Amino acid sequence: MPKSIRTGLLLAPSALLMGVFVVGLVRLIASSLIIDGQFDIGHYTAILNRADYVAMLGRTLRIAALTTVISALIGFPTAYFVARYRGNRNFLLLLIIFPWLVSIVVRSYGWVVILGPRGLINGYLTWMGLIDRPAKLMYNDFGVILGLVHVLLPFMIIAVLSVLLQIPRSLEEATMSLGSKPSHSFRTVMLPLAMPGILTGVTLVYLMATGAIVTPLLLGGLGDTMLGTEIFQEVMHFFDYPKAAALATVLLVTALGVVLPIQFFERWLSARLSDGGDRT
Amino acid sequence: MTRFIAIAVLLFLPLPIVIVVLSSFTSAGYLSFPIEGFSLRWYAEFLGSADWLRVLGTSALLALIGALVSTGASLAAAWAVVRHGVRFGTAYETLLLTPLIFPHAAIGVIMIVTLSSLGWLGTFTGLVLVHCILTIPYAYRPVAAALRKADPALEEAAASLGARPWRTFWQVSLPAVRPGLVTSLLFSFIISFDEVTVTMFLVGPFVMTLPVQVFSEVLESASPVIAAVSATLVLFTSVMVFVLDKVIGIQFFVERD
């Protein structure tokens, strides 16, 4: 058998699977642009003309952005701590990777048990006599963001950690022995080198936060929908597929519009960093 | 400061999971924490329910078939890209990772469109197809990494000593990539077994998965049986992670290729 045919046969199964995905993507976008067999952007203008949808879009962006920023702010120090830990690093890794692999339904449900009206915190506060009525800890933005940070934080930590583990400890020690203060050494050496990992983490967390459904439905208020939950409602309750397709396309544009520039910047930065490494 | 944040985060991550597992042992008829009395009655209810067990079986079978297919497809693709030097190999590898960078709500709608045109909406076959697409990014990376590390000179040596291609493949190539294969299988099994966001668009009256069932029960009721089912899901994942750690080392997750 000629080599080209063998190569083709080897690629066939995965190409078939990816083909199904790509064709589905094209059909999704196409179906959102057709009304009564004609090209029409009516679904999109209908979405943008409704104040509640525009508010929902803003809310999705706000929650995704906040989730991403919080994940970066607490994920980076965690990754740094684990990377520089001299003891049993495997155990710390387990504390990050095990929760990451547990289903998001179980993890979001865990927060319901903790934050709910009869949950851990309210139960404790009532028992202490500090409150007589349960405090509203979920069914609001706070609950959604807390849940999303919990679900997505491991992506951030793993992305940053995989970069940090490649930076030799001696690099930091060298800058400090040359008289640099720890904070200065961190800003000028560690942070730029870790940037590709941070950008990968930011990308993943932002994408998953914009498209989340389970966590916002379990921990969010009934009235305050996000793009993902709205798509789910349109499909499962109203069977409005063209509108769901238009909303899903808006979601894709929202997510990829932010993420693709970050990805290009990350590629460029990685190329530049590895260039610099070769020259020294 | 770094230390303080890190320790807080490392405690925060397992917290809700521990709480769910502990709350599953309550003897009360409603969910509360701390639990009111210790009992295994919710586990008995879960394991005594034909419905729950059927859903558990569906999820396990789905994850098993999905893991086998996407690992097989990934191995074949990686073989072509790494060993045959496909012209647009890097671009093709990026394509295989795309399901990872699409928001899951959008993938859900894409898959509804696709499966309904195939007539597979609400069928097990449809779920298998979708789970294969979703797990390919997770299956491909470990296999490709293992294949890049394996030395092709060993295969050439076997061939030059007269081994036929199939024998070379079974006795030389396959053992060399075995850790990567096992990782792909376990990793895609876990991802598929726990997947919910895309799957819940595609289930129907005749096919249901465990996480989706848990999700719809949580939305409707607060029976502690959900905690027992969740704790069982956690146990499943723990076993998988334990095996992964033994086979390849948990370090694998933070290695770059």
UniProtKB/TrEMBL annotation, chain A:
Residue ranges constituting the ABC transmembrane type-1 domain according to the UniProt record: 57-262
Signal peptide limits: none
InterPro entries, sorted: MetI-like, MetI-like_sf
Biological processes, Gene Ontology terms: transmembrane transport
Top-rank taxon: Bacteria
Keyword Cell membrane: yes
Tagged with keyword Transit peptide: no
Topology of this chain in the membrane: Multi-pass membrane protein
Cross-referenced PROSITE patterns: ABC_TM1 (PS50928)
Keywords: Cell membrane, Membrane, Plasmid, Transmembrane, Transmembrane helix, Transport
Entry's localization field: Cell membrane
A cellular component term, taken from the record's GO annotations: plasma membrane
Positions of transmembrane segments: 7-30, 63-83, 90-114, 142-167, 188-209, 244-265
Protein family per UniProt: Belongs to the binding-protein-dependent transport system permease family. CysTW subfamily.
Protein name as annotated: ABC transporter permease
Lineage: Bacteria, Pseudomonadati, Pseudomonadota, Alphaproteobacteria, Rhodobacterales
From TrEMBL, chain B:
Gene Ontology biological process: transmembrane transport
Cited Gene3D superfamilies: MetI-like (1.10.3720.10)
Transmembrane segments: 52-82, 94-113, 119-140, 181-204, 224-244
Record localization: Cell inner membrane; Cell membrane
Coiled-coil boundaries: none
Domain of life where this protein originates: Bacteria
Keyword Transferase included in the entry's annotation: no
Membrane topology: Multi-pass membrane protein
Principal location: membrane
GO cellular component, one term: plasma membrane
Domain ABC transmembrane type-1 residue range list: 56-244
Annotated keywords: Cell inner membrane, Cell membrane, Membrane, Plasmid, Transmembrane, Transmembrane helix, Transport
Similarity field: Belongs to the binding-protein-dependent transport system permease family.
Name this protein carries in UniProt: ABC transporter permease
